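User: I'm putting together notes for a lab meeting next week and I want to include a structural view of one of the chains we've been expressing. I don't have a solved structure, so I'd like a prediction I can at least talk through. The sequence is below, exactly as it appears in our construct file.
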Amino acid sequence: MKRKPDVLLIMVILFSLGVVTTGYTQSLWERQADTPPAQSQTAG
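Assistant: Thanks for the context. Below is the predicted structure for the 44-residue chain, given as structure tokens.
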């Protein structure tokens, strides 16, 4: 018999993914703020 995943488990996984993604993007933003605009990534 197949059982659907628990809603609580799905919420916990989504929350942890959000926390990890937010921390990663925040560190990227801090790194970009530290570098001068001339050395930032160029669109291409």
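A couple of points you could mention at the meeting. The helical segments are 7-34. The longest helix spans residues 7-34.

User: Perfect, that's what I needed.
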